[in-house]
Structures are given as structure tokens and as C-alpha cells.
Amino acid sequence: MIQEFSLRKIPFIQENSADINNPENTDNVKILELSNTIDEWEREILFSENGFYTLTGKNVENKTKEFISNLETLINSKITKIVFTDINSRTQAVLLKNTKINAIKEQMELYEKKQLKEWELEVYESAISSAKERAVLYRYNSEIVSSSYNQAAKIIEIMANEEKWDNKTKESKIKIFESDFYLSLINEFIKDKNVQASVFYEKYKNKLNVADRENIEYCIKELKNNVIAYNWAKELFSYNLSEKENEKEISLVKDKDIEPLIRHFFNEFKSERKKETESKKKEQNENNWKEIIEVLKTEPDKAILYIDFSLPKENQKNKKEYIKQIINKKYIKTDKEKFINLFKELYENYEEFKKKDISDLRTFFSEEDFKIIEELKKQTEEENIVFVSDYDYISKVLSDISDIKTEEIYNFIKYTISAINDYKKKNKGEIDIESRNKIIKSALERYNRK
Q1: What integer pLDDT is reported at residue 23 of this predicted model?
Q2: What is the rounded distance in angstroms from the CA atom of residue 171 to the CA atom of residue 321?
Q3: Whole-Å CA distances, 314 to 320, 325, 326, 359
Q4: Which of 23, 154, 309, 330 could be bridged to 85 by S-S, CB 3.0 to 4.6 A?
Q5: From residue 272, how far is each of 55, 237, 244, 269 by CA, in Å?
């Protein structure tokens, strides 16, 4: 029985062995392996992080040919090295290669064509946008505006042919372009506050879409009103009339949209003139101070003759007092309360303090203290931020000392400033926050009698 079982099984084993060792089957596995190689190349080379399908626009041009050439070289090399048992297997391998590569190539060419088309459209759109921008930049040159328009129109015509637009689409695209083109120009003229905006609007308003037209009409009306009001106010201001006469003239304006604008521009002119006058007076006062200080060095008795009596009385008074003190005492004693209050003024509104004429403070401050104020006036915005921070901290600490005297606060300020300046000279540079805080802490400990 055992022998019979064995004899029955032998043919079965032999049959399976024949399948495994079948040359045709082995060749098929090798062909399948070749197919896997192509699939792996497709996955890793085309779909990888920096592969073919990540290329966009012009960058993809002719890349299909380049990639496919590399693939063919790779697969041909693989096929050459494969040892086939059946002579027909190599033919099948070559057929597989061509079939798979052609399928891959077809998809790559479609992608390349799509990307190049998108790039082409981007270039056209960019050219149209550049033409509009150039027209805006040269808006006061009618020839360039016209040539920019024509250039853009030609590009639209090319796009229409390339994209095979129907007449309706083409007309729609042209309308959109023209509306954008003339709207851009009109808006720039409005920004320039130039009446050319009105000229362009009247000429090309039919090219604009309705929504933009309504907005532009409002803006142009505002522009016209502003131009009329500006010229009206400027002429009235040039007459140098009294306040009462000015008011009478403005009240005669019948257009209630323009009247408030005239007042606005008139007040702007007044404000500008005031600034110019103050600036000239400030410069005049500063120069007069310099002149008096120089004369005091050589001919002190004549210094009073050099006072500019066209300046306000307060300026004259301060100079007389200064001359008197220099002649009698040879120096100026600092008004410590004024000195401290000036720091508060600097803290509360630095921008206003920077504009202030501090020349007359020479009457109340020693030369050393006046130079301190001059330096504070020159400090940068960043330096002022540090100053404000220091002031907040120091004033809080000093306010806790109930019986502190003006003299002590003055001495504290002078000590702190002197210590900071010494640090800067010694280290030839700006003081860091840590060193600054140490100086302030030392000064507080020195003057904190509590």
C-alpha cells in the first residue's frame, strides 16, 4: 500500500517541477520585472518631489523628450543584460517597453502642452498689464498712451486667434480691457488732482462699466469742487484782507458744496503761513542770540545794541536780562524748577518740544545746562523711547519721597546725565540698558534720603 501511494505521487511532483522550470515562465517573470522597473522609474522620476510633474510653465518645455530619452536608454540597457531562454521573449520585452513608454510619453506631452499653454497665456496677460502700467506712468504723454493701448489691443487679437474665441467672447474681453485701461488712467489723474481726469472721463466714459462710472463721476465732482475751492481760497488769501473781510467774501459763495472747501483751504494757507513765520522768527531769534554771545566776549557794553528789536518783546526782555547777568556776574545761574519742568515737557510731548525755540532759555540756564537741553532736543526717536522709560521709572520713585526738595531732584538729574555721558566717552559708544539701569539705581540710592 505504501509503495502504491508513492508511485501515485511521483508523477504529480514531476508535473509541478516542470512548471517551475519552464523556460517560458522564467522569461515572463523577467519581462514582468522589466515592467516593474519602468513603473518604478515613472513613480520616482516623474512623480517625486522635484520630478517632471512639479515643473510648471516654460520650465517644462522639451522636458518630455529629455526624460523619455533617459528612460529609453535605461530600459535598453536593462533588456541587453537580460538572458532570455525563448528567442521570442526579447521581442515581447521590446514590445512591452515601447507600449509602456508610449503611454507615459503621451501623458507627459499632454502635461507639457497644458503647462506651456498656461505660460503662454500668462505672458500675454503680463504684456497687457505692462501696457496699461506704461500708459499710467506716461499718462501726460498722449502718444505713449495711444501706443500702449494699440500694443495691448494687438495682443488681445493674438489671444483671440490662439484660443479661437467666438465674436461674443472677443468683444467681452475687449470691453473689460478698455474699461480697466481708461479707469486706471482716470484714477491716476484724480490722485494727481488734475482736471485731465474730467477730460478723459468725458471722452471715454462709455468704455467704463456702469458701477465704475458712478464712482468716477462722484470722484470727479469732488475733484472739480476741490480745484475750484483751492483756486478761490488761494486768490482770496493773496489779498491779505482782515478776518472780517475774508469771512464776508467766503459767505458770498452760493454753492454750498464749495463754501466749506474754501474755508478748509483758506485755513490751510493760514496755517502754512503761520508755520513759515514761526520758522523765520525762530531762525532770526537763534541768529540774534549767537550774535549777542559773540559781542559779549569782546565788547559787553555794546551787546544791548545788538538786540533785534523787530522780534517779540519777550525775546528782547530775555536777551536784556541775559546781558545784564553776564556783565554783572559773568555767568547764569540755572533756574532749577524751570530745568526740571522742561524735562516734564520733553516727556509729555517730544515732537512739540523738538519744534520749540529754546534760545531764550539761555537767560535761565547755565551754559552747561543749556547744552544738556540742546542735546535732548537732538535725540532720536529710539533715544526718546529710552528717555520716556527712564522718566516713568524715576518719577515714580521720586514721588514716593514726600519731602524731597527741588535742589535734590536737580542734582539727581545732573548726576545721572553726567554718569551716562562719562560712560559713553569711556566706552566710545552708546550705553547698554543694564549699565544705564545701574547708573540710575546708584543715583536713586545716593539721593533717596528716605
Answers
A1: 57
A2: 84
A3: 10, 17, 19, 12
A4: 23
A5: 59, 12, 20, 5
